[in-house]
């Protein structure tokens, strides 16, 4: 099985607001950068989009080490998702899980691969995470996509849906890997 490193980041100019995501894939000596944007979204949706899009481009099952600076993303996919599924996509407080559509898609993509998740502090010494942050921020600012990426109807799935709460999620979930289950 091929071993791939996937480094992800999301950005949002306002939360909610215009957002961007970026993925850096490394396989042996190859490196690929992907990025995209959404006109009205949240930072958490962009963090998830980066992981989804990075996994989506893999053409075969791989061992994937996914590095993120989002505690919300790492804890959600490695810990909280098991209880969400068991409870019918409800939280501890019996409210609907936010971003359920993306959690389900990410869960399906992870099931195709042997995925391990690594948290890194944002804006620290991780070169690829810093580069992903630059790409995601630029994509949010310019509402741009990497060359060859075909946004079409697909990019709209990262916009906030009308039925979702637009209250900003506290920064605690994006930087603290020890944050409790939402």
Please provide a written account of the structure.
The chain has five helices and five strands, in the order βββαβααβαα. The chain is globular, with a radius of gyration of 15 Å. It has a single domain (3-150), classed as 2-Layer Sandwich (Nucleotidyltransferase, domain 5). The chain is 35% helix and 25% strand. The model is unreliable at 165-180 (pLDDT under 50). The chain is of the alpha/beta class and 182 residues long. The longest helix is centred in the middle third of the chain and has 16 residues, at 71-86. It has helices spanning 43-56, 71-86, 100-112, 127-142, 172-175; strands at residues 3-12, 17-27, 30-41, 63-68, 114-119. The chain has a five-stranded mixed β-sheet with strand order 3-2-1-4-5, with helices on both faces. A hairpin with a 4-residue loop joins strand 1 (3-12) and strand 2.
Features:
182 residues, alpha/beta, Nucleotidyltransferase, domain 5, 5 strands, disordered C terminus
Largest sheet: 5 strands, mixed
What topology, given as strand order, has the largest sheet? 3-2-1-4-5
Strand element count? 5
- Given the C-alpha coordinates, what overall shape results? globular
The helix count comes to 5
Radius of gyration: 15 Å
Estimate the strand proportion.
15-25%
Short description:
By secondary structure, the chain is α/β, with parallel strands linked by helices. 35% of the residues lie in helices and 25% in strands. The radius of gyration is 15 Å and the shape is globular.
């Amino acid at each position: 099985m091929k071993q791939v490193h996937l480094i992800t980041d999301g950005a949002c100019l306002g939360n909610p607001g215009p957002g961007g995501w970026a993925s850096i894939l490394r396989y042996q000596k190859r490196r690929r950068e992907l990025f995209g944007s959404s006109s009205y979204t949240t930072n958490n949706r962009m963090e998830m989009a980066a992981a989804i899009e990075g996994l989506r481009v893999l053409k075969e099952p791989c061992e994937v080490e996914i590095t993120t600076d989002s505690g919300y993303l790492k804890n959600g996919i490695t810990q909280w998702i098991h209880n969400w599924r068991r409870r019918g996509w409800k939280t501890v407080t019996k409210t609907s899980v936010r971003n359920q559509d993306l959690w389900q898609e990410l869960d399906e993509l992870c099931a195709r691969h042997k995925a391990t998740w690594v948290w890194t502090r944002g804006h620290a010494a991780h070169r690829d995470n810093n580069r992903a942050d630059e790409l995601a921020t630029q994509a949010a600012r310019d509402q741009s996509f990497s060359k060859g990426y075909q946004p079409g109807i697909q990019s709209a799935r990262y916009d906030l849906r009308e039925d979702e709460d637009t209250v900003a999620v506290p920064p605690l979930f994006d930087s603290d890997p020890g944050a409790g289950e939402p």
